[in-house]
Amino acid sequence: MQGHFTYLKERIEDISAREDTSIRKVLKQIDKGALGIALLVEPDTGIFKGILTDGDVRRALILGLELDSAVSNIVRPKSITASIDTSSEQLSKLFGEAVRIIPLLDKHNKVVDLALFDTRIYLPVSEPNLGEKELKYVSDCILTGWVSSAGKYVTRFEQMFAKFCGTKFGISSSSGTTALHLSLLALGIGAGDEVIVPSFTFISTANAVAFTGANPVFVDSEMETWNIDPQKIEQAITSRTKAIIPVHIYGHPAQMSSILEIAGKYNLAVVEDAAEAHGALYKGNKTGSLGDMGIFSFYGNKIITTGEGGMVVTDNKELADKIRIFRDHGMDTEKRYRHSVLGYNYRMTNIQAALGVGQMERIDQIIEQKCTNAFLYSKELKNIPGITLPPNEKWAKNIYWLYSILIDEKKFGMSSVELGKRLKIKSIETRPLFPPVHQQPIYDTKQNLPVCEKLSNSGLSLPSSTNIKKDEINRIAWEIKKIKNQTTNEMF
Ligand SMILES: Cc1ncc(COP(=O)(O)O)c(C=O)c1O
């Protein structure tokens, strides 16, 4: 049989029951678990005793067993299990029309994982969109031997990307994180300084500040854009504040006019973290081009990818020159092997840049596809109670890096985490939104940032690859509606 495995370790607890549990209780558990089975286990040891399908239970009821009798009274066929060490090849031979889930046991006979077999196409949250051009340019690097950071593709990629953003300079780097670090180094930020960042972001935004010895100061987000709330920035400014890093989260621009106005008032630099927002527009201008500098990531799940990679864009020549020096071991541009500042090796390779050049030739197409997919999702999901669609302000062009929704647990009937688990069973991958950075063990500021916490707790990113087809988006929306209807029925 053609198909793929999904592993569902996180479901084991939800569907495990003791043999002395009543049929009534186990039926509810099977319904809630949404896998059509319960795992019977020994109470204290967790040792596997057998699989009970909803078919086994219903047949037993027809034959006259009472709802209050224990499930141990149900006659059930022998369960198919496998050892946790079983290879995928061996596993696939065990599946059949009637066998869709196989408990995987450790040497003590405890269930340590579940393998679910599915013949439907697996829909990932993200996958790169690569083609012939990328292959051709990367092959060129290999055939010519220009595989390190010198080579024609690096400059070409930097120029193409700067032009795309509408800035004078583009300075590539080894990642979005190093691009952030470089931009802060160029501003001279260091120990004792403070830099304002949203807490609702990926950890790199704050870590890059910490790399310089400065402290990240966390500010809450606004519900309208999910980005840093400009109204809460001023109260976070102190005499030590040197810069603000607004993040254009999930592809929607932050409120740049207000942020730039505050920065101007307090003489602060602005570095836009546009790692997720290539091509997004703030009032008609490209994100990344509005502050003193903008940074981008080209990690494999980003709008375009170079495998790993990053870029700083700016109109400021002085900053651009400094970044080039910090990126290249702090080496003087005038004199080889002379190092006046402490620098890093943060260079992008020619191979990465070759990928980037190939990707730049289709970036507009990729963004258009992201927007078309978002439109299709929103059309299908807009009237479902308990679902909030991604931000889409009038003055902005969201490029929907990941199409992410918020789930109101009360109105939808289950949490975003539970919805994610149920979609996984249907071969649909989802991802929670970023957890609040101020609550990460390395920062743990004990602040109360309610919007950020709400976004993190209720958000879910749906499959957002540009390879996804219209009918696959319809399938996802249909599954979400079906899951919602099932929970509504469970509630009444
Ligand atoms: C908002 C944000 N900033 C910075 C980064 C860092 O980029 P990279 O992974 O390329 O270091 C990422 C992504 O991973 C990101 O999402």
Task: Provide an overview of this structure.
It catalyses: GDP-alpha-D-perosamine + 2-oxoglutarate = GDP-4-dehydro-alpha-D-rhamnose + L-glutamate. InterPro entries: CBS_dom, CBS_dom_sf, DegT/StrS_aminotransferase, PyrdxlP-dep_Trfase, PyrdxlP-dep_Trfase_major, PyrdxlP-dep_Trfase_small. Keywords: Aminotransferase, CBS domain, Pyridoxal phosphate, Transferase. Residues 9-67 form the CBS domain. It comes from Desulfobacula toluolica (strain DSM 7467 / Tol2). With 492 residues, the protein is of the alpha/beta class. It folds into 3 domains: 4-118, CBS-domain, CATH 3.10.580.10; 132-360, 3-Layer(aba) Sandwich (Aspartate Aminotransferase, domain 2); 363-491, Aspartate Aminotransferase, domain 1 (Alpha-Beta Complex). It has helices at residues 12-15, 23-33, 54-62, 88-94, 132-144, 152-165, 176-186, 204-211, 256-265, 317-327, 350-360, 363-381, 409-412, 416-425, 450-458, 470-491; strands at residues 4-7, 16-17, 37-41, 48-53, 82-83, 101-105, 111-118, 169-173, 194-198, 215-219, 241-244, 269-273, 281-282, 285-286, 293-297, 310-314, 387-388, 396-397, 404-407, 431-432, 459-461. The protein has a 7-stranded mixed sheet, sandwiched between helices. A hairpin with a 5-residue loop joins strand 6 (101-105) and strand 7 (111-118). The longest helix is centred in the last third of the chain and has 22 residues, at 470-491. The model has no long low-confidence stretch (mean pLDDT 94). Pyridoxal-5'-phosphate is lined by residues 175-177, 201-202, 204-205, 247, 273, 275-276, 297, 299, 310. Pyridoxal-5'-phosphate binds next to helix 7 and helix 8.
